[in-house]
Amino acid sequence: MNKSKATLYFSEMLLSLLKGKTSLQDALGILSSEGIEIPVREYAVSLLSIMKKGKNLSESLRLAANNKILFNPLYLSLITAAETTGNIEGVLDHIVRDLQRKQKLKENVLSVLIYPIIIILIAIIGTVIIIVKGFPLFVTGGLLRADILNDAVSGIIAAGFILLSGGCLLFIIYYRIFYHDSPEYTIFYILNLMLRGNVALPQAVSYCIISIKDIKYGKALVMIKKDMTNGVTFSSAFAKTGCFSNYVTGWLSVADVNGNIVEICENIKTYYERKDLKKRAVAARLIEPAVILLTGIYILVIMLTVVLPILTYSGGII
């Protein structure tokens, strides 16, 4: 069981127990008993040990982090806020649904990339076979001189490097698209969740600052909090950063007038969630053309650096 699955499994089981009106201490006691999956049991034992020393749940989750179960800073911030409002069960429910969503996205990106990975691996294996098995036969048969052989090997290595580096770049890009949410979505996801838990708006922004990883948006949030402290309206503070679209500032202007900030943050979160889904759908459609293009470049380099010199030397091309 990998880390993400173990974290999801632990969260689902803990939430199920809490929904059944089991106290937090008793729930962790149940999860630490025999018959529970080893990563969950060990983590529950560690949590119980730390909490018995007077630590709260969020601090215990930080201290108990290991290489099997790990809650990211966003979830820890949400749980910290929930402890002040007493809504741990509600926040844990949101965390479980978010973990389930990310697990599904992770599975989707692997299914999308399995085809290009296979193509690239086959091409690389073919490259190695040509160098190890094919070229010695050409030399033995007198079809290649040593200098042409060296150039051909260099050409194949260059083609393989292009293919491998291009494939790695594709994997990184697609992994980020499918597995990482946009910073705008993350910000309004946190704001919506915090405000629903009756956390004050400035404090909710503070939790966003702690949780957001994007440097640009982190600085923007610091500016927003500072402006709000100086009496600037929520929408104006967002507009001054220049990081957010007119769609966002327009909706926040409505919230400034009507006071329905929770519903507005929900609308904006949904808007960015749909944008992320659309981006992922487009990326899924483009993966096959991208692999075809990359493979075409690989074959072109092979033709120019290997096939063409061999044909020229052997008399196939004058």
Description:
The structure is a single chain. The mean pLDDT is 82. α6 (88-140) runs antiparallel to α7 (146-179) and α12 packs antiparallel against α13 (261-314). With 318 residues, the chain is mostly helical. The protein has 3 domains: 3-70, no CATH class; 100-180 and 282-314, no CATH class; 183-278, Up-down Bundle (Receptor-associated Protein). The protein has helices at 3-19, 24-31, 38-51, 57-63, 73-85, 88-140, 146-179, 183-196, 201-211, 215-229, 234-241, 246-258, 261-314.
How many helices does DSSP assign? 13
Structural class designation? mainly alpha
Largest beta-sheet characterization: none
Compute the CA-based radius of gyration. 28 Å
| Mean pLDDT over all positions | 82
Tell the overall outline: elongated
Residue stretches low in confidence (pLDDT < 50, at least 5 long) are none
Number of domains: 3
Give helix % range: over 70%
What amount of the residues lies in strands? Answer: under 5%
Order of helices and strands: HHHHHHHHHHHHH
Give the termini separation: 61 Å
Task: Say how many strands there are.
Answer: 0
